[in-house]
Automatic annotation (TrEMBL):
Protein name: ATP-binding cassette domain-containing protein
Origin organism lineage: Bacteria, Pseudomonadati, Pseudomonadota, Gammaproteobacteria, Alteromonadales
GO BP terms in the entry: transmembrane transport
Domain of life: Bacteria
Record domain ABC transporter: where: 5-250
Amino acid sequence: MSSLLEVKDLSYCAKSRGTLFKREQSFKLEPINFELQSGETMAIIGDNGSGKSTVAKLLVGAAMPDSGSIILNGETMQPGNIKQRCLKIRMVFQHSQSSLNPGLTLGALLDEPLKLNTEYDGYERRRIIEETLVKVGLMAEHAHFYAHMLSEGQKQRVAVARALILNPEVIVADEPFAALDPSVRSQTVNLLVKLQQDLGVGFIFISHNLGIVRHISDRILVMRHGKVIEAGKTDVIFNWPKHDYTKKLIYAYQSLSKR
């Protein structure tokens, strides 16, 4: 069976300019390789600065790789073809509040990607917007609301709706639950699990929360200093970690979960 998503030898190097008081800094993402099947969730874990978010940016086209390829359903994603990437791979951001324009209604927010990327008329776009809002556990009437009228959990559902609105094949979620309290976080996790079961999309889930990672992921990539140091099925990584760094992460999680 062919993979939904194939990442081959993807590499990236970024440099920040130095100043009088700060040295020039650079980050290098070593060539990485992985595959994602339809309906599968792959989690990427590691410390801050390990390269997790850089991988997310490369996948959605927010950054251009220095080399390597991203292949979706056998089709190579062209680095300069933003529309192609926008239709196929969508992102859910960590801070839903800052990613929602406060001056637009939710309907207008969700209408933007449809206007830019489809040929649907106004009636069809409204139908898709209302159906998508219901799909993420909101009401069709929420299309007339503004972001400030929503709870944090509802804002995150809108962020999920915006990712789903173009019917993508892969969703990249970069720490989507970090700003949510535990009860709302649990509801949002269950929502994503249900959406994946219903829609069959592939999920790439970036998180520090190993409890959620263990609950929702099928496979795990462990990253450190821009490298994938270990990869495997979730139960194997948690029960039989090989790399010392992975063992440190897993043992720290197990110690906390026993308290």
